[in-house]
Specification:
This protein is an all-alpha fold. The chain has helices at residues 2-20, 24-27, 34-50, 61-76, 80-108, 128-131, 134-159, 171-181, 186-196. The chain has two domains: 2-146, no CATH class; 165-197, no CATH class. Helix 1 packs across helix 7, helix 4 packs across helix 5 (80-108) and helix 8 (171-181) runs antiparallel to helix 9. It is rod-shaped, with a radius of gyration of 31 Å. The two termini are 38 Å apart.
Amino acid sequence: MKRFVILVVTFFLLFFLLRGIPTQAQTTSATDNHTASEEAEGKVIWEKLQAKQLECKNLTNDNFEVLGEYFMGQMAGSSHEVMNNMMVRMMGEEGEKQMHIAMGKRNSGCGGGFMPMMGSGWGNLMGGWGGFGILGWLSMLLFWVLLILSVIALIRYFGSPKKSSDKDKSPLDILKERYARGEISKKEFEEMKKDLR
């Protein structure tokens, strides 16, 4: 029974994990090096800011967006394009743009930059909060509950030594254990030992 439960939990974990991994088509949808050119443009603006050739008050949202692309590229490295695609799926193109603007403002020291929520408002059950509505939250909650339960099950299954049950022990072994734990006195032990023989 334990093996069956572990197998089912493992199946569900793999299902949820693989469902969240983007396909090759999703990760290479923008092959025009748009992200790389925005990163390069953001780097130029960042260098001008550091050299005091530009001031924060003179920057536009478009400048902050490419700054955000540059900073995100520095953090994410080669995964930047994949992360951009995931943000577009979660928040839409406008949400992704706003996220980059906020990152540009924060990381350049030009302002707080409000980080947008996923989507626009509460929405409906299926698609509210940028496709992460109530059903999305319930799915995520179910995923984490299953993950935690599977970890607990694996720890219990592999971590604890197999205890032999009282069925595998002779009556004399059980009597010895009771005496060792102090449940019975030496006199009681000897009497019961005689009775067993």
